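User: Predict structure, ligand 1-O-alpha-D-glucopyranosyl-D-fructose.
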Amino acid sequence: MTLTPTTSAPDDAPWWTRAVVYQVYPRSFQDSDGDGVGDLRGILQRLDHLSALGVDVLWLSPVYASPMDDNGYDISDYQAVDPLFGTLEDLDALTAALHERGMRLVMDLVVNHTSDEHPWFVESRSSPDSPKRDWYWWRPARRGMRPGQPGAEPTNWGSFFSGPAWELDEATGEYYLHLFSRKQPDLNWENPQVREAVYAMMRWWLDRGVDGFRMDVINLVSKDVAPDGSLPDGMVHDGPYGDGSPAYTCGPRIHEFLAEMHREVFAGRPDRLLTVGEMPGVTLEDARLFTDPARREVDMVFQFEHVGLDHGPGGKFDPRPLRLTDLKASFGRWQAGLADVGWNSLYWDNHDQPRIVSRWGDDGRYRRESATALATLLHLHRGTPYVYQGEELGMTNAHFTRLDQYRDIESLRHVEQARALGSATDEQLLAGLAAMSRDNARTPVQWDSSAHAGFTTGTPWLEVPPGWTVTAEAERADPASVFHHYRRLVELRHDDPVVALGDFTMLLPDDEHVYAFTRSLGGRTLLVVVNVGGEPREVDPGVPVAGEAALVLGNYADTAPLAAGPVALRPWEAGVWRL
Ligand code: TEU
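Assistant: Predicted complex:
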């Protein structure tokens, strides 16, 4: 099906339709003071790398004051920088330096929950009569049961980080809700005082010069905190708990809240801003509503359909191989569904996902070829691409060989619960973490061949994978590298409106080895064909080729122009041709 783009002429489209966003997970990017943890001054030291790549926006994962239970996604002061990362002045310096380079800074907004050490929660938990009691979700034990009695939790919901989603506060005998860790209590967005405090904080950051927000699990803030969830396990956890997600995923007032946020925070501000909502479990139908410009909610969303395609019956840590036709069906639906209204984000990697070259590529013999093939596949879709630190280098998973090498709370809680339930052997657990742990994306960026890959002069908080070879230094020096392919993809999106805005047509929907599609705008068409595998393939994309189609971008040095008829593809070969 050929789709007409939302915007007829390129110059009508918002700037972010031609932009590429680069995500920095600060604790693993660059350490400047030798404490083994990345920091803001370290990012400042590496801005030339981002400029060389050509990206437009830096999305900065949290640097706020935090006990670091979930590496900063548990915030104890939204308007302070944690000393681990530096100072507010350092953040101002980063904002200014990015602006000087024509780039923008998007902050991570984590307002579904705070840290349990945030003053709001400290006050809320102090007494059932606290004026902030209703800023969080407090409930008594289930009717007829005593606080602390197994099963007395107000609902049977499981947490994203294993275990129950309710924690008993002994002092008051009531439970508080935490969809994530027990140190991440959920804010009660039904309370208008909570929403106004969040909006005031957001305005404070915009007034400080930041250019927007990536909104952490923002589709979970509207909740119906009553029903038990269905058993067996739902989408969020492993263990004897109910799936509460239907009660809080895109809950009853979510569109009302996001429209209110837009009015209270963004209305009247310049259109240089960017908002992206991270939305686990969001449907395409809801995404059309969230990203419809006329509704003024958010510009785009991170959806999770594709990154769930390799989750096995036991969930995320029980992975199965990806079937390419499943990916085509999913991406094809989202391209079709957001063609006439709304906008896609495009991503493989982030700080929560394993690295794509290890996950769905080949991080051994064909590391360069598969990383550049998968990058081409993603970046030629319609939407705003997000590049995660190290992805542009073709960095691989950690390949840790011991469970004690992992640090991530999600992984550690999964191991703890599985051992308690006897649901998996340590060997099975290690295999699951090696494939899917979030730590795979959190090992330090590998800058050069010096100690700890140039990330720190101290001891890194998470070890550089033993036997690492990829470095930014080597990638930058090799014109055929993953880095320079990403640079060319960014350049192509900047320069060619067909890439940014062209309509999308999926080809070869039933082929399990080759991914092909066209992009068309104003009578100009690009054909994209990618061999997603290590065997040579020959396919006929089934599109008319008049004479010879010029190669726009390929990932082999000698990818040829295209003639009519079958296309012969080498292992992991990707080509973009102008028909
Ligand atoms: O992640 C939300 C989320 O959905 C994750 O639980 C994700 O599904 C999971 O990690 C994949 O296995 C956001 C942040 O990106 C994540 O780092 C935080 O831990 C989480 O919210 C809580 O703030």
